[in-house]
Amino acid sequence: MSYDLVIIGSGPGGYSAAVRAGQYGLRAAVVEKDPKLGGTCLHVGCIPTKALLHSAEVWNHFVHAADEGIECGEPKLQFPKVIERKNKIVAKHAAGVEFLMKKNKVDVIKGFARLKGSGRIDVDGRIVEAKNIIVATGSEARMLPGLEPDAARILTNIEILNLTAVPKSLIIIGAGAVGVEFASIFSRFGTKVVILEMLPRVVPIEDEDVSKELARVFKKNGIRIETGAKAGNVRKTESGVQLTVTLAGGKTEEMEAEKLLVAVGRKPNTENIGLENTRAELDRGFIKVNQWMETGEPGLYAIGDVVAGSPQLAHVATAEGMAAVAHIAGKPERPIRHDRIPGATYTEPGIGSVGLTEARARAEGYAVKVGKFPFAANSRASILGSHDGFIKVIADEKYGEILGVHIIGPQGFELIAEAVAAMEAEATVETLMSTIHAHPTLYEALGEAFNSVYGLAINA
C-alpha cells in the first residue's frame, strides 16, 4: 500500500503529525512497534510522572493539613492505588490517541519499521511505500557503563514507575528534569533521597539562580544534594545497592540505598532503523535536519528526540511535526524558534523557563537589565502556603526586548505561558508592565517581575 506520508513512531510528535496530516487531507499511516500508541511520553514519561507528582502534592496537603486548620487524623498512603490511578490516566489517553487516528483516517500499522530507501519501509517483512516519511522514534534512557536496569534495585524512568511500594531510601544519579522530579515525588512520600550530579549544579540547563533556589529548597526539605560528584562501583546487595561516590572535594564516600535511579540523559532510537539505506546524516546518533525537519534524503523527515540539537521535549516534537507536515502539504508554517521554546520541570517548587539565561545573554553580548520578584511578596502564594521561589526577567537594556524569563515557584511550569506568548508576539517589557493582571493570582507576579526590570515593582 502507498501513502502520502508514513510516520514511524506514535509519541506526541508522531501522532500529532498524523492528525495534522489527516486534517490536511493526506493519506497517512503511523507505524508503532509497541502494543499501544502514545510513545514514551504517555506510557513511561511525561504523563505517568506528572500523575505521581500530583498524588505527591495531594499527599503533602494531607500531611500538613493542620497548617490549614483541618483535622485529618492519621492519613494513610496506599501506594498501589496511586499507581493504579496513574495507570488509568495513561490507559485513558492511549485510547484517546487510537480514537484520534480513526477520526482523522490515519492507518495504524503495528510492527518494527526499517527504512529501505526510495520511500520504502519494511515493517516486519511487509513493504510499505510512502512519498514522504517522518522518523519519530524517540529516545530511551542512557545507562552508566556496566549497569543494566532491573525491576528490583537499579531503575530507569520505566522501572521506577511500576514500584509497588514507596522505597525507604533512593539514590538518584543525575539532577536534570527526570532526576529532580522523581526526587520531588518520593521525598514527599517519605523516602530518604540523595541526588548525585556530576556537573556543578542541579537542573544545569536552567538559569543559575533557579538552580541555586531549587537546591536550597530541596535541602530544606531533607533531600541531600551532592554536585560535582561521580558515582562508581555500583553493586547490588540483599537489601538494595551500594556505590562509591567521589565528592566534589575529592573525598570518597560509600553510599547505600534500597533503590538506585539512573537519570543521566537519553539516547536517540536511531539504531537498526535503516538510516544507512538513506542519505540522512547523523551526529552522535542524532539525525541532522533543516528548518523544515527534512534530512539529507528527499522526502525523509525527522522530529523529536532523534533530532540533532533539538531539546528532548514532547511539545518540541509536536511543533516539529507540525512544521514537517505543513512543508509536506505545501501549507504556510513558520520555522521553529528555539529561543521561544518553554521548558517545564514539575518539581515543588515548579520551574518554567523560556529564552536566554542571564549568563547566556551576557555571553552573547547583550547589555541586559534584570528584574526579579519573589513569591514571598505574592498574596496568592501566601494563600497557597507556597512562598519559595521567584520570577526573573532578562531584558535588553536599550529596547526592552524580552530575552528570557525564568520562574521557580508555585505552578511555575504553568505561569511561563504568558512569557512564551509575549516573546512570540515580540512584546516588550513595557507592554507587560502595562498589562493588567488579576488580583490575587500567581501570574500577577509576572507583572511585578516585568516592572522590577525598571525598579518599579509595587510589592517588593
Throw out a few tags for this protein.
alpha/beta, FAD/NAD(P)-binding domain, Enolase-like, domain 1, 3 domains, five-stranded parallel beta sheet, 13 helices
Average of per-residue pLDDT values: 97
Tally of individual helices: 13
**Would you identify the CATH architecture of the largest domain?**
3-Layer(bba) Sandwich
Termini separation: 65 Å
Instruction: Count all strands and give the number.
Output: 24
Radius of gyration: 23 Å
What fold name goes in the CATH topology slot of the largest domain? FAD/NAD(P)-binding domain
Q: What is the strand content?
A: 25-35%
In short:
This protein has 460 residues and is α/β, with parallel strands linked by helices. The protein has 13 helices and 24 strands.
